[in-house]
Amino acid sequence: MRAVVVSSSAERAFCVGADLKERNGFSDADLVAQRLVTRAAYRGVLDLPVPAVAAVHGFALGGGFEIALSCDLVVADATAVVGLPEVSVGVIPGGGGTRLLTRRVGWSRAADLVFTARRLTAEEGLALGVLDRVVEAGAARDTALGLAATIAAHSPVGLRQAKRAMRLGLDVDLATGLEVEDAAWRATAFSPDRAEGVRAFAERRTPQWPG
Fold it and tell me: Does the keyword Iron apply (predicted)?
């Protein structure tokens, strides 16, 4: 596997998060039990070792938007509406939203969105950096698949190590981050992928990655 696209088969939404009518009948024990499952689900997306692209259409709210934020890139179509409305119902974004949104857009913009619980249109999301690409209505999935295919054409070893270096180096000081990067570079520099990539470049042909 070289890249992943996360999309929805629902017509009106990518994902709207928790079912609040269901949760209205939850006991504390029910809430804790569900929390274990949802945290594992978010981590499953976030910890993918290969690049992940979200294809968003319609509503992506609360936990649904956090699934998209767990991906490396977010492609949305013109119908997309995104937001983290959790404080309006007495909780906080608990699927990584407080960290992932802040990483994407900085403290003040993330605070504005989380504290007000407001929703963004696709164009507003693109302008703020919440979304990476916006395409015409109905084109998010095909665009995301095309982007993933472009990514997947490159070295599998290089892609995994690049993502590892970027993710692990994000919240550390520069010196530590450079050590993380060096370790990832070493993992690629002495790999069969690197040998094939250089050889293919010299021979002016498409690489056949060993992976």
Answer: no
